[in-house]
Amino acid sequence: MPGLEDLYREIILDHYRSPRNRGELPVPPATRVEGFNPLCGDEIVIFLSVANGAVEDIRIGGQGCSISQSSASMMSAVVKDKTVAEVHRLTNAFKAMMSIHVGGDDHGDALPDPDVKLGDLEALQGVVKFPVRIKCATLSWNTLAQAIDEAMASEDP
Amino acid sequence: MSHSLDVAAVKADFPILDREVHGGRLIYLDSANTSQKPRAVLAAMEHYYANSNANVHRGTYLIAEEATNALEEARAKVARFIGAPASQEVVFTKNATESLNLVAKAWGRANLRAGDVVVLTELEHHANIVPWHQLHDELGIELRWLPITADGHLDLTEVDRIIDGAKVVSFAATSNVLGTMLPVRRLVDAAHQAGAIAVVDASQHVPHAATNVAAWGADFVAFTGHKMLGPTGIGVLWGTSEILEATPPFLSGGEMILNVTKEGFTTNDIPWKFEAGTPAIAEAIGLGAAVDYLEGLGMDAVREHEVSLTGYALRTLAERFGEDLCVHGPADAAERGGVMSFTFKNLHPHDLTQVFDQHGVCVRAGHHCAKPLMRVLGVAATARASLYVYNDEADVDALADAIAAAADFFSF
């Protein structure tokens, strides 16, 4: 039976205590997208600035539980300066870790690339044992995907 | 006290309460979400399937007659339980959500026009909000909101002004988040004064206190079976005979017609004109058994038990956690149902209830399908513990211990 320690790893609590990249970016030029977890009412706001096909800057607003907040914090730290293609590969690898089928999405990616390193994000793999909380962990990633789509759409008219 | 509740005996009637979770006993504090079922309800449903399973209102053979009689007997029990003047005023639906949709989509579409006003309160469940939003989009009706006070009561200061000119006033009898018990008769009278119909969402009231729809004087009353010890999949819409007669059918097909030709159809009598298709027969019978069970306990005894246990819970939480724990809603147990929504320090309700689970304590975390109210309260979510007939002081103590354990786990 999974215990609380499987879910609340120390690094998760660290990101919850001291979230990275909290704040806002001026809109425009940045893109602002809100995400909602219908389960608990958590709201996340992502401010994203994309330049030359890469994440130039990102800020996180909103409120949520330790899992959604730490996932957003770790996500923001890892995607900064990554190209949009790299972010897609990371997103796929993260969702695969969450047991979400990601093969053949809109971006033409095949199965998750085993070479993608999730680093600190691997601390969230215990969430899989608590299926209700998977939505908490993926909220920021789904919101990021929407923000990237909107940012790219406004970049090349 | 002539007729108080024997909680130990009640607990023994609920098989699920014998089950172990995470190595300890199951402490179920989520009855506002769905209640547990006594053996008598399970037995009634099994008895029907094992002995009388047949479709209703069709067959001329013995078991079909038994099934029809059992369904109609369940309807009569529900009618008596809520003080309905006549059995045919009790319409079986899937749940309270369907009941409220029936009012909005069948009565509302036939009777409301652009600019007509529907009045709701700020503490409504989404089931009493979203169907009206849809009518706003579809017909152009206008919504007005009765506000709540800082301590979670309905603000009555401007009720008559807000309701003036409305066509519908639709409100919860008891808040599923705050436990607030609304002045139903006062609101029904204000509605009628203004020429509006009164719709009561009694989902959190009927299971917990004696209900008399005739004394309320409302036009429609909606509630659900699974929160009152009955099974899921069976709900009720009560309406006065006059308004049900004047309301067109909601769903259509078999069972709800008197005659069908190539040119058209004529509807069946109430309540059957609202019960298209094969109904939830076993579930209705289970609900009838739940009504028998609650009547056996006595609804006054049920209410008395909940007021007393809610008082104990409010005192215990205040003594053990002081300012760290905030219970939303009325402070006086006599003015509320056994529903306690709370926030603890800066811990997110999801994280709290995750720790509770390890201690076998079942409590809901989230917005409780009342996001407009959450916004008024200034919180994204709360943890909600809710009490019922099978809960006792030991369950409340277990909740307090679980809160302490969560504080300990997240101490930083």
State which percent range the strand residues of chain B make up. Answer: 15-25%
Major sheet attributes of chain B: 7 strands, mixed
DSSP strand count of chain A: 3
Round the Cα radius of gyration of chain A to an integer and report it: 15 Å
Known CATH architecture of the largest domain in chain B = 3-Layer(aba) Sandwich
- Report the top-level CATH class of the largest domain in chain B: Alpha Beta
Order of helices and strands of chain A: HHEEEHHH
Give helix % range of chain B: 25-40%
Order of the strands making up the biggest sheet of chain B:
4-10-9-8-7-5-6
The CATH homologous superfamily of the largest domain in chain B is called Type I PLP-dependent aspartate aminotransferase-like (Major domain)
Give a short account of the largest sheet of chain A.
3 strands, antiparallel
Poorly predicted ranges of chain A: none
**CATH class (first level) name of chain A:** Alpha Beta
In total, the number of domains of chain A comes to: 1
Using only CA atoms, what is the Rg of chain B? Answer: 22 Å
Instruction: Predict the CATH topology of the largest domain in chain B.
Output: Aspartate Aminotransferase, domain 2
How would you describe this structure to a colleague?
Chain A contains five helices and three strands, in the order H-H-E-E-E-H-H-H. Chain A has helices at 4-7, 10-17, 66-79, 84-97, 134-155, and strands at residues 31-36, 43-51, 54-63. The relative contact order of chain A is 0.20. The mean pLDDT of chain A is 85. In chain B, helix 8 links the parallel strand 8 and strand 9 (220-224). In chain B, the strands form five sheets. A seven-stranded mixed β-sheet of chain B has the order 4-10-9-8-7-5-6, sandwiched between helices. In chain B, helix 2 packs antiparallel against helix 10 (281-297), helix 11 (299-321) runs parallel beside helix 14 (393-409) and helix 12 (349-358) packs across helix 14 (393-409). In chain B, 40% of the residues lie in helices and 16% in strands. Chain B is built from 14 helices and 17 strands. The mean pLDDT of chain B is 95. Chain B is globular, with a radius of gyration of 22 Å. Chain B folds into two domains: 7-30 and 298-409, Aspartate Aminotransferase, domain 1 (Alpha-Beta Complex); 42-296, Type I PLP-dependent aspartate aminotransferase-like (Major domain) (Aspartate Aminotransferase, domain 2, 3-Layer(aba) Sandwich). Chain B has 412 residues and is α/β, with parallel strands linked by helices. The A-B interface holds A 1, 3-4, 7-8, 13, 17, 39-43, 63-67, 130, 133, 136 and B 22, 348-351, 354-355, 358, 365-367, 371, 374, 380-381, 409-410, 412.
